[in-house]
Amino acid sequence: MSAKYRAIEVSKPGVFTEVNRPLQDPGPNQVRIRVEACGVCHTDSLLVDGALPNLAYPRVPGHEVIGRIDAVGANVTTRAVGQRVGVGICGGWDDTCLACLRGDFVNCSNGVLTGIMIDGGYAEVMMIEARATVTIPDGLQAVKAAPILCAGVTTFNALRNAGLRAGALVAIQGVGGLGHLGIQYARRMGFRTIAAGLGPESEKLAKELGAHEYIDSGAEDAGAKLRALGGADAILATAPSGKAMSDLVKGLAVRGKLLVIGLAPDPLEVDTGSLVFGMHSISGSTTGSVQDEQETVAFSLLEKVEPMIEVMPLSKAREAYDRMMAAKARFRMVLVTENGNQRAGQAN
Asked: Are residues 119 and 88 in the same domain?
């Protein structure tokens, strides 16, 4: 086993550097993972752009990680060498703040973000607390499982926590990195699923993913169309446009909810009457805890929900990141290490 491993560091904001790092033993509560695949997510830009205070560089990005454990710390009893695991963005929590005491670990006041505050998965090896890992069934390919740990859990959680009943009319705004997963989850949860995208070219794909109907927001008023269909009990807003999200509020049914998971540069602007009359609501939904990630993985395997991906080698991390940020990916970028290539070769 080599005494060094390759990693892609952000050495300072905006700068990607490939380095060789010395292999180290995990700490008492950690596991060491041989990374096979790591998704590239828009949230990585928090590190790349230096968008949070007090970030330390160099730092290895990546929080959609799949691999196998090759060493465990002295105190670890829940994980074993050879076990297949994944790591999402929830890399640690304090267990003492009010959110944690209520079991709401994803909103920990001192939460640790994988690949932003600690080193992540743009590397052949990573270290993480054992409790921050989820088990990955053999039925999921590493490259397909990786995006489930962020894009997957984000869309899955927003829908399953919305208090909806089977048969509810649910609209998914956007047929992209988040939206294409949201359509699949909504359909498999038993909702009447409407996809709203820009342009007629997305209709075929939306329906293949499970949408019962498609609305071309570029050609017609999506809110008015939803209202004509009876109104949406929930709209999952994934596209990065505050104006487009605002326009959808009028498409809600009585007591309908706009569930916002897409980050937009412009604000939501909604008149108060749109909320008061019809008792509509707008709420944000973030990613999920480790248990949420575990349940998302299980549901995705059970119901055959899969991300559409483009794969690049670890050495092309910068290119993959730029492609993702330019919205050119269809629909999630995933980096593969030599560990992943070897594992795929063995499977063949």
From this structure: yes
Quick one: 1 exposed, middle or buried, by C-beta within 10 A (0-12, 13-18, 19+)? exposed
Q: Angle at the Cα of 205 (from 331 to 179), degrees rounded to 5?
A: 50
Model confidence, pTM = 0.96
How many domains does the chain divide into? 2
pLDDT, averaged in runs of 10, over the chain (348 residues)? 91 98 98 98 97 97 98 98 98 98 97 98 98 96 98 98 98 97 98 97 97 97 97 96 94 98 94 95 96 98 98 98 96 96 61
For 197, the 3-state DSSP assignment is strand
Pairing of strands 15-22, 4-12: antiparallel
Both 267 and 313 in one domain: the answer is no
Q: What is the CATH number of the domain that holds 216?
A: 3.40.50.720
